[in-house]
Amino acid sequence: MDISQKAKTTNICDECDLTFDTIAKLKHHRREHTTTVYVNEVPISRTENGFPCPICDKILKSVRTFETHVSAHGATFAKAAKRSREELEDGLDALSQDKQPRLSLNVEKPSSDKPVLLRTYHDAILASCDALMENEKEKQQKIVLAQLGNWEPVSLLVEDKEYNLLASNRIVKTLVEDQIIGSWHRPDASVSNDNDCNCAKGQSEDVDSNIFHLQQTSQISHYLKSEKYVELTTHVVDLLNEDWLLYPQLRYVTSSIFAGAIMIEGNTALLINCVEPYGRLKAVDAHYERRLQKDTSSFPEKAGKYGWLKIVSSSEEGGQKLKIGTRTCNLLVTSSVRIDNGSGYAPELGPFTRNFRPSEKTKTFLDSASLASGKEMLEDDECRRVDRGRFLFQLRQLRSKFHALSSYTMCRASSTFTPGMEMMPYTVWTLFDYDCGQSISSQEKIGSRLFQVLAASVVKSGRDARLKREEVETLQDSTRAEGSIKRMLGEILGLMEGADSVPIIGNEKLNKVLTGMANVVSGGLNRANKSAVAHISSRSIQ
């Protein structure tokens, strides 16, 4: 049998054994054996006359004409199961072609990132106490204890495990925001705060637990970690209580020691950025603290935690002043910032400190570098300033008694946290250097420039210092608008009565004019100090 004869014998209908020349003819023939088709998925069986249309009852003999007819009605047509073999043969015909498209099956790998189902708030509390399987009474006790302690649950996810802990709301917020990763340690329960060493692993033995906590949690932790602090002692306080008449360098020593100090009261902490010392006696300081009102006095009436030292927030005209008092002087805090985590207070500059309330239990820690600097000054009988440079920023914020020599002592000290001039409190001596971007100096700045001239003369010449006519005239000429400063400069020229200069120290008439000028200049301090606050705040968030 040749190949053509073999092909013909293969085209045989398996229903009626008829033979066809081609597979196409065989396919067409097989349609006549179809007994059931589907219209809109409803089976339609062949009758003796053909397929009845379910829509119009017309009968059509062949499958092809029936399909065309029902499709014209908009119905869906499908062949009966009998056609599956024919369709399979159609597929086999397609496979017999020389070139077939490559088959591919896209199988997505199951994701390993399963949705994490965290425990509920109460379940997290119970899990932290290992109480999820306890009875309802025990569970309720654990939840109540968490509420009494103001503890919040926090979840730590490690791969597919969830660990739960309890902490304060502030700590929980820090952990969630910072996503802290580190090592875990169990504190030694046998070590108490009363022992000589109460340090955890990683905490130096000479670091107080309060300072260590601030170094870990404060918004300026980056700065605090770079500094070393020691708690104030009675020995240091005893030295600071020595008489200024015998040890004049103490006015510089005292402020230097407390610059950069940290005060802790309860859960609040204050970093002191700038302090000014004032003597107790009129003989050593024209700006001594008056003793008429005991409720505002910083004088220690009894020995306290650190000996003869009193830290007080006194209510005075304009606001609260934070003072540190010994029996020979008091320190006025003129720049500070709250550093306890979450305090949210802006730095304070000027004579008032409203964000800290000390008590007899207030703990004070000194910056080790400031303490060392104070020690050097104490051993130098010729010490006459806190710092070698920027003498104007070492003068106190004064508004009167410019005829007194003590008004020009360079005893104001600043911390290393606020080293730049743009971060220091402005005074009548320094307002001229406030960089506000104006091309023309304001009235306040011109007045401040006169105070700089006065200070430079006194620092150079002491009691022999004089104010020259030409210096006043130059400032008067630079004052373009008529105003109080220009008028006061004219009054100073009038005091000279044709002379080239007038003395500064002991000149009460000149002081009277300067006191009025200081009040005018002080009007610009608030605006300048706001700029300093912004600079300090930007440093706090670095």
From TrEMBL:
InterPro entries for the chain: Znf_C2H2_sf, Znf_C2H2_type
Classification via Gene3D superfamilies: Classic Zinc Finger (3.30.160.60)
Superkingdom to which the source organism belongs: Eukaryota
Domain (C2H2-type) ranges: 11-34
Region forming the signal peptide: none
Metal-binding keyword on record: yes
GO molecular function: zinc ion binding
Descriptive protein name: C2H2-type domain-containing protein
Annotated organism of origin: Apophysomyces ossiformis
